[in-house]
Design a protein that fits this description.
This protein is mainly beta and about 600 residues long. It is built from one helix and 46 strands. The chain has four domains: about 160 residues, Glucose Permease (Domain IIA) (Distorted Sandwich); about 160 residues, Sandwich (Immunoglobulin-like), CATH 2.60.40; about 110 residues, no CATH class; about 100 residues, Immunoglobulin-like, CATH 2.60.40. The longest helix is centred in the N-terminal third of the chain and has 13 residues. The N terminus is likely disordered.
Length: about 600
């Protein structure tokens, strides 16, 4: 998107005292001088350094409960350094700067400015009227718009991307600071993080091991094998890698990123990491912190490396090198996750330094040529040549039966052919792997390629394309690959509790009544174009990707002639299935005629 760049020359700045420690990553602003960004104590819905599709989340998201127009408050004394607007990304945003401590807070997805800075809101309106209405970016002179901590400086909204919420960042000269670092912003919760799984990989293991975690007391978890047996010890030698899967619930239902993690060997800390700060360089290096082939945003599942991962993504790091330890020595291991308040959850087990007991019945069902892999039967091939591969291991492709998979195939999607498990040993990759599944015949319209992400327990899209003898696809995760037949039509249902602009009635469109209808599909996916009728006539709509819903705007002038409107929606999916009509009988009784303006459209 092209932004209209309007620059005002900076006024000369006086030299301010430097922070006490010039090498400090986080400015030494007293915690008492940093306040909460909203007038109510809102829960965090998204946390710092959460994994995203292309990079890491650089701030904290605060709930606005689907409503736009709440005041945003200055987090500290300072002046507005920059304002910007775009239809994507941050949307309408504001940067507040404190020159004494050289710290900046960024507010994003706003509806408008204002509060104690009335002229700033007038400037926003003028920029959109006189400049490019699709966007602007404006640096302001120091001291033009000065404010104090706790003053209202704008309104929450949903501009840019995502549903209504406030996105808040803190930045220093060298990087980005976790908002939960500041005591007035962290959520004072009493619930420790949840540990879901422990992933154990070693030079001496034929294949990686995944253990599920079960909480037995507050913050204390036990580990269980895939067969359900309690796991307490294992024989291993060589280098091993430990990854913990988990999340943190703070004060909301959201599954958030944790604040820190620790690994202990015989009671001594050998690895620790805090997500309190990220350098500008590290913000795009998510592979340093997560197993990106197993982590996900939807639903949130984070597989944390319990070791330092090289930035260059060439060699795989490791947690412990067992080689220096005497043979038969027993080593106590504890792995922990922490939240910003200091609550901790942990798992414990022991390693006996011996060669592992190999399962001789296990055979590697894949063939490797460089960074190209094939299943034993030659049906599945994965090419990682164009992806960035780390480690000296390989991608494992194994045939499994329906009885062996740890999930149920949804009703209405019968299995066609074999199931293949894709997993890794001592390797990971960044980017897209190119895959092919050869069926030996042309798939029917209802047959499609499906991928079950074993880390998050959910079917995920892998962009399959039909070929004369099967499918091609793109792969970024590990999991199960299969062909299913889509026999189930999509569904349509109304979305309720949609409210907008609650404190700004002057911006509401009094001419139109908004209705949202959610689309969903368990199979090949719904099409965003639907058949929509109002009183038997085709009616316009638009698709809202943030809500996976169609938005219908009904002229309120219709209430003059029609006490009821009959709305019908039919949806279809990519397998050719068509839903039954969803019917909504809408009463126009509540549409107040006195609010209609002369400029409102009249439809008879």
């Amino acid at each position: 998107m092209r932004l209209a760049k309007i620059c005002i020359p900076f006024l000369s700045l006086l030299l301010f005292p430097t922070i006490r420690n010039a090498d400090s990553k986080i400015p030494e602003i007293p915690h008492s001088e940093v306040g909460f960004p909203l007038p109510y104590y809102s829960p965090v819905s998204g946390t710092f350094a959460e994994i995203r599709n292309h990079n890491l989340h650089l701030g904290s998201d605060f709930k606005s409960y689907g409503l736009n127009g709440h005041n945003i408050l200055a987090t500290f004394d300072g002046y507005v350094e920059e304002i910007s607007y775009s239809k994507t990304g941050y949307g309408l945003s504001l940067n507040l700067y404190n020159p004494k401590y050289k710290i900046k807070s960024k507010y994003a997805h706003l509806h408008s400015f204002g509060g104690t800075l009335v002229e700033l809101e007038l400037l926003r309106r003028a920029l959109l009227l006189m400049g490019d209405p699709t966007g602007f970016q404006l640096k302001l002179p120091a001291g033009m718009f000065v404010t104090k901590k706790g003053n209202a400086i704008g309104k929450t909204g949903e501009t840019g991307s995502g549903p209504p919420h406030l996105h808040l960042e803190f930045r220093s000269e060298k990087g980005i600071i976790n908002p939960l670092y500041f005591s007035e912003i962290h959520q004072k919760d009493v619930t420790p993080p949840t540990i879901l799984n422990m992933f154990l990989e070693g030079d001496d293991l034929d294949k990686p091991l995944m253990f599920s975690a079960k909480e037995i007391a507050k913050g204390k978890f036990e580990l269980y094998s895939e067969s359900g047996e309690k796991f307490t010890s294992i024989q291993l030698t060589g280098k091993i890698r430990i990854r913990l899967s988990g999340y943190d619930k703070i004060r909301s239902r959201n599954k958030n990123n944790v604040y820190g993690m620790d690994l202990f060997l015989n009671g001594k800390s050998i690895f620790t990491r805090n997500f309190d700060y990220l350098s500008f360089e590290d913000k795009s290096q998510k592979h340093q912190f997560y197993d990106i082939n197993r982590s996900s945003l939807s639903p949130p599942v984070y597989f944390y490396h319990m070791y330092e991962q090289p930035k260059q993504f060439k060699e795989e790091g490791y947690s412990i090198d067992l080689n220096p330890f005497p043979k038969k020595e027993t080593i106590q291991i504890q792995a922990s996750l922490r939240d910003a308040t200091g609550n901790q959850s942990s798992v414990q087990f022991e390693i006996i330094h011996e060669t592992s007991k190999k399962d001789l019945s296990t055979k590697q069902n894949s063939k490797k040529t460089g960074n190209k892999y094939k299943s034993n039967d030659g049906a599945v091939s994965i090419d990682l040549t164009k992806a960035e591969v780390s480690g000296d291991g390989s991608l494992l492709i194994s045939e499994v039966s329906e009885k062996e998979i740890p999930f149920k195939i949804p009703k209405g999607l019968p299995l066609k052919g074999k199931i293949y498990l894709l997993d890794t040993k001592r390797m990971s990759w960044k980017g897209e792997g190119l895959g092919d599944l050869n069926l030996g015949t042309t798939a029917s319209l209802k047959d499609s390629l499906y991928f079950f992400d074993s880390s998050i327990g959910k079917f995920q899209g892998i962009q399959p394309k039909r070929k004369p003898n099967g499918f091609s696809f793109k792969l970024t995760k590990v999991g199960y690959l299969m062909v299913l037949s889509d026999e189930t039509p999509p569904t349509v249902f109304p979305m309720t509790s949609i409210a907008r602009f609650i404190e700004l009635p002057e911006v509401r469109n009094h001419c139109l009544e908004e209705k949202y209808y959610v689309l969903s599909d368990v199979g090949s996916g719904f099409k965003t174009n639907v058949e929509l009728l109002v009183d038997g006539q085709t009616f316009p709509y638009e698709y809202d990707p943030d809500r996976s819903a169609i938005r219908v705007q009904l002229p309120k002038s219709l209430q003059k002639e029609r006490p009821y409107l009959l709305l019908e929606v039919k949806a279809s999916d990519f397998a050719g299935n068509i839903s039954d009509p969803f019917v909504d009988l809408i009463s126009t009784n509540g549409w107040k005629e006195d609010l209609l303006q002369a400029s409102c459209p009249v439809i008879e």
